[in-house]
Amino acid sequence: MCLAIPMQIEAIEGYLARCQAKGVWRDVSLFMMQDEMPKVGDYVMVHVGYAIQTMTEAEARSSWELFDELLCETDVPPEHA
Amino acid sequence: MNEAQVWLEKMRALELPGRVKIMNVCGGHERSITQAGLRGVLPANVELVPGPGCPVCVCPEEDIYQAIQLALVDKVILVAFGDMLRVPVNVPKGEIRSLVEAQAAGADVRPIASPTEARKIALDNPGKPVVFFAAGFETTTAPVAAAIAEGLSDNLSILLSGRLTWPAVAMLLDSGTPGFDALVAPGHVATIMGPEEWQFVVDRHHLPTAVAGFLPESLLAAFYSVLRQFVDGKHFLDNCYLEVAHPSGNPTAQRLLAKTLDVVDANWRGIGIIPNSGYALKPEYAAWDARRIYPDHADPKRRRIGEMPPGCDCAKVVLGKIYPNQCRLYGKACTPRNPVGPCMVSDEGACRIWWSSGVREAETATEQPDF
User: Which of A56, B189, B285, B361 has a CA positioned 20 to 30 A from the CA of residue B323?
Assistant: First the structure.
């Protein structure tokens, strides 16, 4: 549940950001980023649909590599799609 | 030499006086440690102990029972993070014992991945009551607070089982037998609340402490930091996740938490009440508080209320008193496909993580840490 995934912002409308990570798109709330609003192109750490902090591209890319490994190694199928 | 190897070399060069136990309190940390096989590459006298890092595991059994009844009796649309759906409660054989069984019996139970989905389901079903059963630590409770502050529709309410991480660590430390010599603090809790929240471990308890991220390099940096502090006898709060866990944390998130929720004494399954360790909706949000809206379905005649299932050692696993495979049921009566205790259900439960990483051998508790 505390698993957070870095995503890149592609568009912002109000507090809603269209974000992408490795070819997967999600709507992400920026409601918790009001003190330091990110902009299009920025990378954010996303947890349960909310951006919790901005981060650098380099940090985002190394996290993605780790998730690739984790997803390959998990032997139990997820609860739901 | 890559970064991970550099940290490992530095750790091997330290002259440790004896066995050193490092506790983590985050399911995400335990997952990274286990999947990357970090236990196998650290110096032999360094032990990594998974502690209270799984909110689903400590969610009161009474709350899960209440959620099941809300779905079955009050016929609400019950939405919850997917982890929660398969956690069994203590009821006689043949009765509905989890949210997923309630769903199979016809109740409208839906797994969600975000509070925004709960809001959308409520908006899409204007005539139906929707209850969002929300368990989680600060990282997950802050988005729930954000959703409340953004505004919930009248038909949506929250059954909140939010918990704070640090009070459980404080309880272990105050017990006199914490079972660890150093702490690796949770990176995303620190991202929200600020790394400084963990300063008390250094100031009051004089233990080496470091905030870590979730990549093996960040975890190894944190392990080196606390081991070096241990050897030098100079303890401080280190931050090995500077890129995301900024000083003072996320001010918006903290403001939203303070605006919508009170910090209250709270029950941890298998552990008991820990002072100031839970979140509850503030009275001004009572109209969206499922605890105030719906009847309490607690049945005083029900057996083993609040307890872990018979034979299940989840409570000891959560507190780091034993390792997952030292539980009497691990891999025998309890597996991810037929879980008995919550630690084998949740993706953040230490038992589930160890099993998923291939730990199949149960171990008698002869190597049990000294408690």
Answer: B189
Cα–Cα distance for residue pair B57/B271, rounded to 1 Å:
11
Q: With an 8 Å Cβ cutoff, is B98 touching chain A?
A: no
Q: CB pairs below 8 Å between A and B: how many?
A: 129
Q: What CATH fold (topology level) applies to the domain B56-164+250-293?
A: Rossmann fold (3.40.50)
Question: What pLDDT does A71 receive?
Answer: 57
Is B304's pLDDT higher than 90? yes
Of 3.40.720.10, 1.10.1900.20, 2.30.30.140, 3.90.1210.10, the CATH number of A5-73 is 2.30.30.140
Helix, strand, or coil (residue B365): helix
**How far is residue B123's CA from residue B211's CA, in Å, rounded to a whole number?**
39
Cα separation, B148 vs B132, in Å, equals: 11
Residue B269 in this model has a pLDDT that exceeds 60 = yes
CATH 3.40.50.11750 range(s) for chain B read 3-51+166-231
CATH architecture under which domain B3-51+166-231 falls: 3-Layer(aba) Sandwich (3.40)
Rounded to 5, what percent of chain B is helix, strand, coil? 40, 20, 40
Q: What percent of chain B has pLDDT over 90?
A: 94
Query: Exposed, middle or buried, B335 (CB in 10 Å: 0-12/13-18/19+)?
Result: middle
- Whether B215 and A66 lie within 8 Å, measured CB to CB: yes
Q: Quickly count: other Cβ atoms within 10 Å of residue B251's Cβ.
A: 14
Distance from CA of B147 to the nearest CA of A (A): 9
Q: CA of B341, closest CA in chain A: separation in Å?
A: 16
**Spans of all domains in chain A:** 5-73
Residue type for B329, please? L
Residue environment code for B301-331, b if the CB has 16+ CB neighbours within 10 A, otherwise e: ebeeebebbeebbbbbbbbbbbbbbbbebbb
Asked if B139 is an interface residue toward chain A (Cβ–Cβ < 8 A), one would say yes
Chain A 25-64, CB below 8 Å of chain B: which residues? 27, 29, 31-36, 45, 47-50, 52-53, 55-56, 59, 62-63
